[in-house]
């Protein structure tokens, strides 16, 4: 069951309040206009860079309720098209996922389960607006909201620029952007009445071939009484590699995951 919850978690949040880094060092944050902040943040978007693909080696630790585990992770991303994820225990692949624009496929050799479904199906089940673009942005450390679509209120605190929506119906929405680098520090959304919340915290960045790329980030999600915390670190990142996306559900994985909306 834990692996099934992990699958849903990755589906949603590859769509952390508890792992924020604390510091007593206060820096003077330069004043900046809203439009200039959005412009600077957008100029750092990896999605808009000349790179077309990414190959990433990393690792993940997760906790779902009282259960915790660690996985080795490999990502292959063809920007705007496909995301391939392989998880392994002690070097042995046990979980694979292929995320495409309108299709998500997954299997787990441990409990012999598999899943295939559209994002519309996932959105209907979860109530969260998940899309391929959202997942890709989360992996690349980019803001998932369209900050140009509407003007959010802005303030400075905790050594960052914070943007928040005071009038979002039933939702709390907040984005934090680092000064100087103008990269995403955190982003969170919470639904008060449905007791659902989701946040990502980008703890560290690294410079790879002149591109500022996430080094480690933490995801925290709560769906009613189920809390999930995932920390992902990228150990090796390569751009513009020739990629393949092998995916085939093994015959032994013959139990299809069916999610009941009443259980989410």
Task: Describe the structure using short key phrases.
mainly beta; 14-stranded mixed β-sheet; about 260 residues; about 15% helix; globular; outer membrane lipoprotein receptor (LolB), chain A
Walk me through what this model shows.
The longest helix has 12 residues, at 2-13. This protein is mainly β. Strand 8 (160-165) and strand 9 (171-177) form a beta hairpin. It has a single domain, classed as Lipoprotein localisation LolA/LolB/LppX (outer membrane lipoprotein receptor (LolB), chain A, Clam), CATH 2.50.20. It contains 4 helices and 14 strands.
* Ends apart, CA distance between termini: 14 Å
Mean pLDDT comes to: 83
Beta percentage is: over 45%
Radius of gyration: 18 Å
For this structure, the CATH topology is outer membrane lipoprotein receptor (LolB), chain A
User: How do the helices and strands follow one another from N- to C-terminus?
Assistant: HHEEEEEEHHEEEEEEEE
Number of individual domains: 1
Structural class: mainly beta
Name the helicity range. Answer: 10-25%
Helix count equals: 4
Q: Please identify which CATH superfamily we are dealing with.
A: Lipoprotein localisation LolA/LolB/LppX
Which SSEs are present, and which pair or pack?
Layout: H1 2-13, H2 34-43, E1 53-64, E2 67-78, E3 82-89, E4 92-100, E5 104-108, E6 113-117, H3 119-126, H4 132-140, E7 153-157, E8 160-165, E9 171-177, E10 184-191, E11 196-208, E12 211-223, E13 226-239, E14 255-256
């Amino acid at each position: 069951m834990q692996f099934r919850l992990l699958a849903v978690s990755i589906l949603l949040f590859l769509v952390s309040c508890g792992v924020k880094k604390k510091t007593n060092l206060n820096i003077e944050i330069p004043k900046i206009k809203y439009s200039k902040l959005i412009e600077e943040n957008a100029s750092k978007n990896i999605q808009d860079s000349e790179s077309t693909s990414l190959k990433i080696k990393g690792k993940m630790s997760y906790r779902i309720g009282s259960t915790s585990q660690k996985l080795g992770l490999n990502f292959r991303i063809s920007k705007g098209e496909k995301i391939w994820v392989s998880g392994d225990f002690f070097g042995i692949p046990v979980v694979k996922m292929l995320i495409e624009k309108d299709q998500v496929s997954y299997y787990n050799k441990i409990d012999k389960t598999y899943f295939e479904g559209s994002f519309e199906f996932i959105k209907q089940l979860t109530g969260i607006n998940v899309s391929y673009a959202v997942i890709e942005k989360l992996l690349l450390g980019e803001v998932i909201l369209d900050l140009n679509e509407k003007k959010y209120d802005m303030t400075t605190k905790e050594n960052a620029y914070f943007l928040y929506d005071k009038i979002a119906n039933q939702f709390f929405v907040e984005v934090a952007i680092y000064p100087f680098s103008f990269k995403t520090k955190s982003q969170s959304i919470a639904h008060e009445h449905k007791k659902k919340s989701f946040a990502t915290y980008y703890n560290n960045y690294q410079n790879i071939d002149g591109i500022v790329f996430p080094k480690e980030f933490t995801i925290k999600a709560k769906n009613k009484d189920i809390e999930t915390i995932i920390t992902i670190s990228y150990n090796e990142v390569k751009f513009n590699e020739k990629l393949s996306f092998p995916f085939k559900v093994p015959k032994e994985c013959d139990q299809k995951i069916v999610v009941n909306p009443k259980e989410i």
